[in-house]
Amino acid sequence: MYDVSIIGAGAVGCAIARELSKYDLKVNVIEKYNDVSNGTSKANSGIVHGGYDGKPGTLKARLCVQGNHMFKELDHELRFGFNKCGSFVLGFDEEDHKEIERLYHNGISNGMDNLSIVDREYILKKEPNVNPLVHSALYCSGAGVISPFEYTVALAENAGDNGVEFFLETEVLSIDKQDGFYTLNTSKGKIDTKYVVNSAGLFADEIAKMAGVDKFKIIPRKGEYQLFDKEIGNTVHSVLFQTPRGGSKGILVTPTFHENLMIGPNAQFVDDKEDLKTTKTGLKEVAEMALKSVPGIDGSKLITQFAGLRASMADYDFVIEESIKGFINLVGIDSPGLTSSPAIALEVTELLKGSGLELFEKDDHISYRTPYIRLDKLETEEVNELIQQDEKFGRIICRCESITEGEIIEVLHRSIPVRSIDAIKRRARATSGRCQGGFCTPRIMDIMNRELGMELTEINKHEAGSYILSGRTKTAKGGNA
């Protein structure tokens, strides 16, 4: 019998798992995909927002500001990487300026104290590649960028190190309410638990319905992105938003934590909760709108395009509630869900406590996580010493990102299992460069075969069925006998 079962291993679910791991509880996380951060959390902007956009008095406003203030300490403990680069909301005329003033006062009401309205001269001094027609901007020095999947993995690994169990590739099929506990019927058997936290993102409405709560409706909202080579990663140094018009924040232009340039997203409501297809029309819209902020983006340096989905609802605010005794629903956790995630974890912990869950702090809780070895962050002498200790750190596997065999091996042996090429990509960046894995994928597969004992035909690009090899050439269908 578990004390708490968390359904969904995205940023919010893993933040809750990490928070609950501080207490003497038996906790698990159930995730239908083969890795954490494989839903909304793997394909978003990676922005730690400034807290000026949320309507005063809403959960979105309060939890965004609270979460923003937590990221510096979180990064100190978990070492996932946080670049507090600041953000601008760019305005191009007087109408935009009025909206910027509204956002400023909004942010002050929400408790943000690092906001200022700046003029063209200030903007172009900090960001010389911004459109010179810019009129003014809202500047937030407290905003920044993270790698959203590395953040989620860090939360999960720390939770795992503190005893939280992760059931990956395990789908919840139905939920039964027993006398004082719940039985979660999954694709891999039954799980009995006293409390359930529904953090299933796009599928939170469906999980709630399994428990008899049929009042939520998730409306997937797709956003398309373009990612550019690091060669032009210094085009901008801050996150650049456009002034909201008609409910849209426009297309952002941002550096990523790993120093690429990224633009997007657009916003389109879709019916399919797994519709991650990019479209010619959508990508054209992203590219053209980004030029309003930064006219000189070099389209020839584009290396990949992708889409993500937000778990939006018709109602504006987050829903975080104990809908029925012992069952906590988190629904409609869209933007700024990533920024709010550590604060949401505290909110859920208080709800569980109020529902009767006894919380006794552990004496042996591990607050800190050992970061992955990043050779590009080390001094030459440190790299040479590491290579002398293990020659695998001198063997380049991913040429585009200069990732070594030693770095890849190091991420394979943590508390969260790694079972796909993309799972390695999310941890060690291998396959994320210009060639998008064209050179290094076979070499990574050999390492997984050796280190994890996986057959080459068992290794997927991402989820089950995305196999890379189906068999040996002479025995595979269509091969030469």
What is the strand and helix layout of this fold?
Elements: E1 2-7, H1 11-20, E2 27-30, E3 47-48, H2 59-78, E4 82-83, E5 87-91, H3 94-110, E6 115-119, H4 120-126, E7 136-140, E8 144-146, H5 148-161, E9 165-167, E10 172-177, E11 182-186, E12 189-198, H6 204-210, E13 219-228, E14 239-242, E15 252-255, E16 261-264, E17 268-269, H7 280-293, E18 302-312, E19 319-324, E20 327-331, H8 337-354, H9 380-389, E21 396-398, E22 403-404, H10 405-412, H11 421-428, H12 441-452
Parallel strand pairs: 1-2, 1-12, 2-9, 5-14, 12-20
Antiparallel strand pairs: 3-8, 4-8, 5-7, 6-7, 10-11, 11-12, 13-16, 13-17, 13-18, 15-16, 19-20, 21-22
Please describe what this structure looks like.
The chain is of the alpha+beta class and 481 residues long. The protein has three domains: 1-81 and 145-218 and 313-371, FAD/NAD(P)-binding domain (3-Layer(bba) Sandwich), CATH 3.50.50.60; 87-141 and 222-307, D-Amino Acid Oxidase, Chain A, domain 2 (2-Layer Sandwich), CATH 3.30.9.10; 375-458, Orthogonal Bundle (Arc Repressor Mutant, subunit A). 30% of the residues lie in helices and 22% in strands. The chain has helices at residues 11-20, 59-78, 94-110, 120-126, 148-161, 204-210, 280-293, 337-354, 380-389, 405-412, 421-428, 441-452, and strands at residues 2-7, 27-30, 47-48, 82-83, 87-91, 115-119, 136-140, 144-146, 165-167, 172-177, 182-186, 189-198, 219-228, 239-242, 252-255, 261-264, 268-269, 302-312, 319-324, 327-331, 396-398, 403-404. Strand 11 (182-186) and strand 12 (189-198) form a beta hairpin. The mean pLDDT is 95.
